[in-house]
Design a protein that fits this description.
Largest sheet: 7 strands, mixed
Shape: globular
Number of strands: 10
Structural class: alpha/beta
CATH superfamily: 2-enoyl-CoA Hydratase, Chain A, domain 1
CATH topology: 2-enoyl-CoA Hydratase, Chain A, domain 1
Strand order of the largest sheet: 1-2-3-4-5-7-10
Number of helices: 9
Distance between the termini: 31 Å
Helix content: 40-55%
CATH class: Alpha Beta
Length: about 240
């Protein structure tokens, strides 16, 4: 498949294959692309299916409008109806399964993965970005773990993902404070590429055609990217 749209089952998530790159777009701009009961299962399925698709060489995840993803839809959670009675062990098992099949699956994809941030990434949205191999951010983008502001401990593997990228001290700071980190070009090295880590964030024009050209470089570059990624994973895990 050279190019074409993929049916995701919902207009809250879009997917298009362009020159072997599956561009997956979170499409809830009115809620800053927050995750919910419709978009999240569709995202899980697209990550799994495009990861297994032999016609796809790389995955790029982005958000519609001015945000990447604001995390979980807190308002939607409040209006989701009565909660199903579950034991603590059942709740933990369900949370683990949801994390394993989203950010866990994204980390495990055997193809290059890119998160393109047109704007903010917070909470679980940040975890999705961190689970990708590379993060590309517009100058208007910023991140925040966000959990401390809503009284939650963090989910979708964000503690492990942050620690892996920026080191223990910086990860604790970002999780405990939920501070906003802006991605002005002059601040990228100081804010995220700390000793022991490396966020891999670059500021570029996020026009969609140019984005794919700059980040992946077409079919030959995708192949080279896949080989280098395999080498890195073999050495570092």
């Amino acid at each position: 498949m050279a190019t074409g749209s993929i049916d995701t089952g919902t207009d809250q998530l879009l997917c298009e294959v362009r020159e072997q790159v599956a561009v997956i777009t979170l499409n809830r701009p009115e809620s800053r692309n927050a995750l919910g009961n419709i978009i999240t299962p569709a995202l899980r399925r697209m990550i799994r299916e495009r990861g297994e698709d032999p016609d796809v060489g790389a995955l790029l995840i982005t958000g519609a409008g001015t945000a990447f993803c604001a995390g979980g839809d807190v308002k939607g959670m409040a209006n989701s109806g009565p909660a199903v009675e579950m034991t603590l062990d059942q709740k933990v098992a369900r949370l683990k399964e949801r994390q394993r099949t989203l950010t866990g699956a994204l980390v495990a994809v055997r193809k290059p993965t890119v998160a393109a941030l047109p704007g903010p990434a917070a909470g679980a949205g940040l975890a999705i970005a961190l689970a990708c191999d590379i993060r590309i951010a517009a100058t208007s983008a910023f991140i925040s773990t966000g959990y401390a502001r809503v009284g939650l401990s963090g989910d979708y593997g964000i503690a492990w993902l942050l620690t892996r990228l920026v080191g223990t001290a910086k990860a604790r700071e970002l999780l405990f404070t939920a501070d906003r980190v802006d991605f002005y070009p002059q601040h990228i090295g100081a804010d995220l590429d700390a000793p022991g880590g490396g966020g891999g964030i670059r500021s570029i024009d996020l026009g969609s055609d140019r984005l794919i050209t700059v980040s992946l470089g077409g079919r030959d570059a995708v192949l080279g990217f896949r080989l280098r990624r395999r080498q890195i994973r073999t050495v570092c895990g």
